[in-house]
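Reply to thread "Modeling small-molecule complexes from scratch"

Following up on the discussion above, here's a worked example others can learn from. I took a protein sequence and the SMILES for adenosine-5'-diphosphate and predicted the complex. Inputs first:
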Amino acid sequence: MTTTETAVFGKVPPDGSPAGAAGSRSAVDLTPASRSGLFWVTSDAWLLAKRSLIHTWRVPDVLVFSSVQPVLFVLLFTYVFGGAIDVGPGKNYVDYLMPGVFAQTVVFGAMLTGMGLATDKQNGLLDRFRSLPMARSALLTGRTLADLVRNTFIVLLMLAVGLAVGFRFHDTSAPEVIAGFAVLLLFSYAFSWISATIGMAVSNPEAAQSGGLIWVFPLVFASSAFAPVDTMPGWLQAFAKHQPVSVTIDASRALFQGGPLATPLISSVAWSVGIIAVFGPLAVRVYRRSTSR
Amino acid sequence: MSESDAPAVLMEGVRKNYGSTQALAGLDLTVAAGTVHGLLGPNGAGKTTAVRILTTLLRPDAGRAEVLGLDVARSAAALRGRIGLTGQYAAVDERLTGLENLEMFGRLYRLPARRARARAMELLERFDLADAARRMSGTYSGGMRRRLDLAASLIIAPPMLFLDEPTTGLDPRGRIGMWEVIGDLVRDGTTVLLTTQYLEEADQLADQISVIDGGRVIAEGTADELKARIGGHQLDIEVARGGDLTAAAGVLAGVGTGEVTVDEQSRRLSVPVPGASVLAEVVRGLDAAGVALVDVALHRPSLDDVFLSLTGRASGAAAHDGGGAASDTPPAQGGGSEPQDLVTT
Ligand SMILES: Nc1ncnc2c1ncn2[C@@H]1O[C@H](COP(=O)(O)OP(=O)(O)O)[C@@H](O)[C@H]1O
Ligand SMILES: [Mg+2]
């Protein structure tokens, strides 16, 4: 029963000995390189970031869908609701809207972090990664960094759409504009870590998605993204004014269009740094304890 | 080659609960270096949990677990650089090519870029995946993906390899191929702990078998030792004419160690016998009595029989072995006896 099956997997060399299977006979030197701990933390994270970017590149539907939705929002709000929303005398609604759309885009984009990680968990890759001698933070850092790159790309795409429908920067300078985007992207990076924590804690990507949306929806819509907060009922205003999405939008609006800057900027950066400081270690902790299935 | 070395795997009284589910209830296990050890048990027996503890993915609630002399909890980091794991579900990145997968895992095992690539190529060649090296692994067949998965666990040529149900989901050809690969690994000195629900597989591959059920080991030994536990061989014959049944039963009673069972419908008889040596005697005896044979077969008890006698129930995996009990075979396949596997003298 064996003769016909002998070479199903391996090439048996002419001398009949099995080809260097376990690699005691491997032609390749398999001793690991010795470097410092910090080198490995960075190198492992980079490898996994590269992996996630290859995913995005190779299966671009995620990228397409996460761009289509904000584009629809821009068109809908600019042309349908724009006329009805009063953003102040002499102000253009699209100028008000775009920072809100940027924030919405990066916050929803950050949800993909958790979904991607939950997918790794579901299909068994998490077990493999956890059994390797790689840095404990690498899978999460790599993923969040790749998602930051992807979010940056989508934000630039949204900027192009915005410029096409009449969005302009006013009373600002190039460094301020760049700082405005930096505030948004830092915020997006922070939200990726919340999303990563959820993704590691649940058992499948669907749960990660609904677990993410539950708290993201109120944050995005009860905010200053689409309409000024002072038009909301009093009880909602208190929340809407100070919650992290609003302050981030207010900060980037001020950097893009002028206006009071210090308070929203400080709040936004404090929120982002605080979220990373809490959820970074928490996500890694959950990672270390979770197994596939 | 030194058999007296410390065991490659040592588990003593290992317990693990998931909430209120007890997965391991004091598991004891010793795997000698350089051997293949089979962990055999039905679904839910605790096999995967044991493998996860030994590969540092789970911490035991109680007990001691060491691999290559390293404690799985205290020396987890050091251990990860010396073991390979092929989990129950093929863990490869479906959106990367086969080559990219192996290169990435090689780098994560801390091989420098060039060596990681060379090793990836070597393994792809070895596992007959060279032609598919630049295709996304999501497009691979189940067998190819399993091979890629196994290749990934061999990147650093680990001295200790864990295979959790390595052939589940493979067709018979793929399964035999996997068996050969595992055989090659062991010849090269790798110690393998493999889990399986297939009794036949444990019999084929493992030097030593631990039967586990309900999170503890219920029997241990070589396949032969386990089989010996429930007695010797069983002789089954089928006679051509119904009228010969009594004469044949008389001959079998003369050599058997137990009761002769007769199934008149299928004209089959079976009897426990001490060993293969009785076969010639039986055939001669039947010939002398003028009994025409259609079939004669000598069975060692299958591991299924072992499992049944150890746990009081059938194993989780369906036994496919054609032989065995004559009692519930369907009514004889017509009178025309086409004696395909006739044994005569
Ligand atoms: N993550 C988990 N959560 C809860 N129960 C689990 C989990 N993993 C396994 N179990 C339970 O633990 C027992 C042993 O499971 P497992 O080790 O997977 O067995 P096997 O691999 O032999 O099929 C089963 O009863 C199973 O349902
Ligand atoms: Mg299992």
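What I'd highlight from this example: Residues 172-187 of chain B form the longest helix (16 residues). Chain B touches chain A through 59 residues (CB under 8 Å). Questions welcome below.
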